[in-house]
Design brief:
By secondary structure, the chain is α+β, with helices and mostly antiparallel strands. It has one domain (5-151). The chain has 1 helix and 5 strands, in the order H-E-E-E-E-E. The protein has a 5-stranded antiparallel beta sheet with strand order 1-2-3-4-5, covered by helices on one side. The model has no long low-confidence stretch (mean pLDDT 88).
Length: 152
């Protein structure tokens, strides 16, 4: 009642398939968690910009580079950034370097005819999901859009 070589080989192949499947599952789970972390960091960045912009005494003169005083955060003007919503007035494009994410933001404002007399403050944050340390904006980045309203 011994085990034949064929049975051992079949068992080995089945075991190898199970181990490779488990490894692929773990890899994809870790990759998905990293993508979610980047998305959350981009959303937090947009929220930080939104709250600071709402608190600014003059919305048209808001300068997000003043937020660079926070530890682990550097905001600089950028030549390129994500596109602003159509019909809005651009406040500027910025490169944002944080501890776990390098991203690019475009700030713009406009009036929503359905929400007058409120001004729509638009923030679009873009990041590269495969390389969170990218230092130049390129089209095709993931986008997170946030619009908030302020009394004019």
């Amino acid at each position: 009642m011994g085990v034949t070589l064929v049975e051992v080989l079949i068992a080995s192949v089945i075991l190898m398939i199970v181990v490779l499947g488990a490894a692929a599952f773990r890899y994809n789970a870790a990759l998905g968690a990293r993508k979610a972390d980047l998305h959350i960091a981009a959303a937090r960045t947009a929220l930080l910009l939104s709250e600071a912009w709402l608190a600014a005494p003059e919305p048209n003169a808001f300068d997000p580079t003043s937020l660079s005083d926070a530890p682990g955060l550097l905001i600089t003007p950028a030549a390129q950034g994500p596109p602003a919503p159509a019909g809005s007035v651009s406040l500027g494009k910025y490169a944002i370097f944080a501890q776990d994410l390098n991203c690019f933001a475009t700030l713009s404002w406009g009036y929503d005819l359905a929400a007058l007399p409120m001004r729509a403050l638009n923030i679009v944050v873009a990041w590269q999901p495969q390389d969170a340390t990218a230092t130049e904006y390129q089209s095709g980045y993931k986008l997170f859009r946030l619009t908030t309203y302020a009394l004019d």
